[in-house]
Structure formats: C-alpha cells, structure tokens
Write a structure and sequence with these properties.
The structure is a single chain. With about 350 residues, this protein is α/β, with parallel strands linked by helices. It has two domains: about 150 residues, D-Maltodextrin-Binding Protein, domain 2, CATH 3.40.190.10; about 160 residues, Periplasmic binding protein-like II (D-Maltodextrin-Binding Protein, domain 2), CATH 3.40.190.10. The chain contains 13 helices and ten strands. This is ABC transporter substrate-binding protein. It holds the Pfam family SBP_bac_6.
Length: about 350
C-alpha cells in the first residue's frame, strides 16, 4: 500500500472510531435506568413516554418491587446499574441506610412538606396512594362487595382475596400494617395483623410477589388489597367493572418516593428525571392517573371528582414513615415465620 493510500486508510479508521464513539456516547447520554418503574403501576408507562419526549431520555420499564430493587442496588454497590429508584415510602429510610442513595434536591424541593422528604436529600415523595380493596365486582359471582377488613374472612370469599407478598413488596408490608392499625394494633405490636392473616389463610388467599393489576382486571383475583389509584384506573380508564373500597375499620395513606442512586452511570440523566417528576406537567399527570401528587394543587377537579367522597377518605390516616420503616423487619420476619 503506497503512502497516500495508507494515509487515507488511517484517516478512515480514525473517522470510523470517532463515529462509533459518538454513537456510543449519544446512546449513553440518551438513556437511564429506573428500578421499580413498571408501566402498569401508577401509570409509569405514561411517565416514561413523557420523559422520552420531553427530555430525550429513554428509560426501559422495570418490574422489580421495592424490596427487590433495594436488594439489587446493594448487590450492585461496587458497580451500579441503576440511576434512579422508585420506592414505597416504607423502603425510603432503609435504602438510605443501606448506602445506595446519594443526596439530590430536585427543583421544587423546598415545596415538599417536611416528613415527605429526607432532610439531606436522599429521597423525596412524588405522590401517594390510599390502601384499600380493589374489587372486580363482575368476578364476585353475585356476592356482595366487601366493606370491611373482617369481611375478607367470610367463607363466601374463599379463593377470591389477594395481597402482595409482605416478605418483599412494600404494598404487602403496608397491607399488614394497615390491617394491624385498623384492628387495634400499633407499630410495635402487630399481633392483630398476624392473627388476621392466619385466619385469612383458611380462605386460600392469592399471594403474588409483583403488581397484579391485570389479574384483577381479568377477574383472576376478584379482591386485591391494593391502592385507590389502581382501582380508579381500572374503573375509569380501562372501563372494567372495578371499584375501590376504604374498609370501615380504617386504613392508611402511603407516599411513594424517588432517589438518586449512588454512583449511577448516568447520574446527570437521573437528576433530570428527578427534576421532571416534580414538574407541573408530571405532577398533573400523576393526578390524572388518580394518585395524589405531592403538590396537591395539581390534582385536577375532574380527577378528584372520580375519587370516593372525602367522608370515606376520612377513615384513611397518613402512615408514620419512620415507625413503619422501623417495623419493616418485624413484619417480614413474623409473616415468614408465623403465617401459614
């Protein structure tokens, strides 16, 4: 090969390498990983589309639950994969204490009420949901819609009641505490919930590990202990024969939070996502998906009109996140060892 040809050949290789590098860089710059962002849950599907449209960041759906997300973050500590994580509020402090989150105060931070954010910025609430009974009325086979926690123990609902596994899912752990507090227990004493779940075991409950929205819509699980936003989505968005019930004994409200993963490979994109989920646009979207946005003014009158009356919501009390987090290991251990 003569010198001119050699020079052109080398220049071509250099251009190709530069192009590949540019493509790889663009590919990396336009992506981020969010753990526990399943499209069927809390309308994350719409949020992920908006993040791509508004920010140019592609975020693949992820179907981990809160417990699985924290376990993965701990396992990957030396070489993080995720950039941001979405968690039930019960998992917020445990994630911080595990050293997998790094402080970041997104735009709008100062407007978030105290108690709904870590003082140092490790996590912050983006919206909340009220726990109750997500019921497919057509799948009840003519049986009445249950109105109380105690109704779930009736033989007529055998094989019809579901709840997420408390050994891993935040909503499952919250369900234990919601029942416990409603039946006279405390954050330190969960005997009432353990007794209730052992009684419920005689009714052959369905205990999935992952979000089970589709299984309720199809009627496979006629009654699921779950959030209001899923029931309203089924009723109003998917036109399914579903409704939401706040048990007469009472229940709890839980915030859902997000945080920046420590050492995440696309930290800048992670920060942009965290800014976005507190933006006016995103907060309005959460409200239109029947969640209560952390900035209450973004819940539209139209969406609010589809919620149960305020008189029903008066039976739902905000959960104490610190006490709930402290009770989490006890909930998991006692459920695993005592509920048969």
């Amino acid at each position: 090969m003569n010198f001119p040809k050699m020079r052109r050949f080398v220049a071509g290789i250099a251009l190709a390498v530069t192009a590949v590098g540019t493509i790889a860089s663009a590919h990396a710059e336009g992506h981020a990983i969010c753990y526990n962002c399943p499209p069927e849950w809390a309308d994350w599907g719409s949020q992920l589309k908006a993040i791509n449209t508004r920010l140019g960041i592609q975020v693949p759906p992820d179907n981990k639950n809160s417990g699985q997300s924290i376990a993965a973050l701990i396992a990957e500590k030396a070489n993080p994969v995720a950039d941001v994580v979405y968690l039930g509020g019960i998992a917020a402090d445990p994630a911080r204490d595990a050293g997998v989150l790094t402080p970041y105060q997104p735009k709008g931070w100062e407007k978030i009420p105290d108690g709904l954010k870590d003082p140092n910025g490790h996590w912050f609430a983006i919206h909340s949901g009220t726990l109750g009974l997500f019921v497919n009325t057509a799948a009840l086979g003519g049986k009445p819609v249950p109105q109380r926690w105690s109704d779930l123990l009736k033989p007529e609902y055998k094989g019809m009641v579901g709840y997420l596994d408390p050994t891993s899912a935040a909503v499952g752990q919250l369900g234990v505490m919601a029942i416990n507090l409603a039946l006279g227990g405390s954050y330190d004493n969960i005997d009432p919930a353990i007794a209730f779940l052992n009684q419920l075991s005689k009714n052959q409950p369905i205990v999935p590990k992952q979000t089970s929205y589709a299984r309720v819509i199809s009627g496979e699980i006629p009654i699921l202990i779950d959030y209001d936003f899923n029931a309203y989505r089924g009723q109003y968005s998917d036109k399914a024969p579903t409704r939401f019930v706040i048990p007469q004994e009472g229940t709890v409200v839980l915030p859902y939070v997000m945080g920046l993963v420590k050492g995440g490979p696309q930290a800048d994109n992670g920060r942009k996502i965290l800014d976005f989920v507190l933006s006016d646009e995103s907060q309005t979207m959460w409200g239109n998906a029947y969640l209560r946005p952390v900035f209450a003014e973004h819940l539209s009158a139209e969406a609010k009109a589809r919620f149960l009356p305020d008189a029903d919501y008066a039976r739902a009390k905000p959960v104490d996140l610190k006490k709930l987090a402290a009770a989490q290991p006890m909930i998991v251990e006692r459920y695993r060892n005592e509920v048969k």
